[in-house]
Amino acid sequence: MAGLPRRIIKETQRLMAEPVPGISAVPDEQNARYFHVVVAGPEGSPFEGGVFKLELFLPEEYPMSAPKVRFMTKIYHPNIDKLGRICLDILKDKWSPALQIRTVLLSIQALLSAPNPDDPLANDVAELWKVNEVEAIRNAREWTRTYAMGNI
Amino acid sequence: MNNGNAHNESDQSVLEEIEALKAILFSELDVTYSPSGRPIEFRHTLYPSTADDANQHYVCLTLVMKFPAGYPDQPPSVNLKNPRGLGDDFLANALKLCNEKCKDFSGSPVIYEIIELLRECLTNSNRPTGHCTICLFDFHPDDVFTYTPCYHHFHSHCLSRFCESMQTQWKEEDDQETANNPRGSNWKEKKTKQFTCPVCREVINVELASLKLAPPPHEVENFQEEFSKDAKFAAWRKEMDKQYHRQKTRGGIIDKDMEDSRFLVVTENTAATSPSTAETPSLTTEEIVQQSQSQPEIKAAPVQAPSTSKPVASRPDWSRPQQHNRRPVRGKWIRSSDSNGKERPVPAQNIARPSNPPNRQSSNEKHNSQPRHRAEESTLPVAERPYGTAPHPPPAARSNGTAPHPPSAAQVRPPPGFAPR
Asked: In this complex, is the C-beta atom of A142 within 8 Å of any C-beta atom belonging to chain B?
C-alpha cells in the first residue's frame, strides 16, 4: 500500500479533533484503514443507553467505494442482521465520495432512530416490528440492556 | 401598530416594494402571498455581478426574506440558502451584514438594498472558497477546478478520478452482465449510465478528457502531516477496549463463528485475507457481507462461482464463502485464486435489486423489487443532526428548484484572476 491517502489522514484528524456527539471512531494502531467505532444509542429510541461497537474498514478504492461497516455488538433491529451487517443504501449503490466516515456513522445512528421494517435484513425482527411493534421495541430494549451497556 | 389601518398600510408598502423590484430585476419573482394577498416571503437566487456573463459565475446563493406583519417598521428575516462555492465564513459574514442593513433601514424598504449588498459580497468572492468534497482539501489559487451545472465545485483532477472510477464500475457491471448472459439475452432493463454529481446526484456532463489533464490539487500534493496518536487517542482506544471486553463477557458481542455455524456455512477460507487486514480478523465477515449482499447474480452465473471455497450443502447461494480481498489495482480483480482472490466489486446494479440479502428465515422475495432504504429518502449524506430527529436531506440535497441556468456542462475553467494553466 503506497502511503495512506491524504484524505484518510484528513478525515482521521477531524474525527479525533471534532468528534461527532455520540460517536467515536478511532483508527487501529496497526492498520490506519481499520476503525474501532462506538455509537451511542440515540435518545428516544429503544437503543437509548446502549453503546454499540462497530468496525469500519476503508477499502483500497476509498473514497471512490464505500467503507465497510459492521455491528459487533448484538442489536435487535430490522435492518441489521445476526452478523451485524447493515442494510443501508449509502453503504452500497448510493455511495458517493462526497460522503465521509462521519456521515456514514451518522446515517447508521439515524437508522437506529428510524428502523425500516419494510426493507428488512433481519426478517424475523422485521416481521415482528410490523406485526407487533410494541413487542419488537420491547425486545430491542431488552437486547440493548442485556448486550450493549457500556459500563457496569 | 396593531390596528387594521397600520396593517393595511404595511401590506400596501410591501406590495409596492415587490412591484418595484419586478421592474428593477426584469424578472418574475418568487413571492409567497398570504391568503389576504400580502407578500410574506420572497426568494431570489443571486449571482456575482459579472456583466450578465453566466460563464463567469462561480458562486451563487438563494436569498430568502420573510416579512413579518408591520414590515418595514419590523425588520424582515433574512436567510441564505443553497450556497454554492461559498464557505461558512462567507455565509456568516454576509448574514451579519444583511442583518445590520435591515436594522439601518428600519422603516424603509430594504429588499433591494439586501440584494445589492449580497451581489457585492458574491462578486468579491467569485471563486469557490469551500473545499473539494472528493479530496477534502481547499481550492488553492493554483488549482484547476471545475463546477457542475448544479454549482458544486471539485478539483478537476478529483472529479476525473471519480468519473474514471464510475467508468470502471460500469465496465465491471457490463463484463459481469456478459458473463451472466453470454448469449446476450438480457431481459433486464439497462441501467442508464450517466455521471452524477457526487454531492447532489444531478446528472452532469463531463468532458473527461480535459478534466484528466488537470494536475492534482496543490494542497494534496503538499500535505505532509501524518496522523499523530496522542494521549487522547490512547485513552479512547483503551476505553473502547474496556467496553468491548465488558460486552464480550456479557455475551453481547456477535460471535461470527457461532452465527456462521447456525447458517450451516463454512467460511474458514475467508480467514486468509490480505496481510494488511490480517490484524483485523473479524473484517473477513465484512467482506462476506459485501459479497453476499450482492450475490444473487451468482445463481445465474456459474462463471462467477468461486473455486476458492468448499462448496457446502444446504446453503443458499448468497452465503457461499468466497475469498476475496481488497483490490490492489483499481478496476482489476481476479475471479478465483486461493491466494489472490479479489473482492468482487459491488456494482450498484446488483445491489439495487437484492436489498434484503442473506437471511435464513425466508427469502421474502417481494422486497427484492423495492430497494428502498430509509436513508434513500434523502438523496444525500445524512446531515449531522441531533439524536432522535427524523432524517432529512441536508441543505445541499434540498431541491435547488430555484437553481439557476448555469453553464451547459462542467468544464475546466480557471476562475477569473487564476492563472490559466
From this structure: no
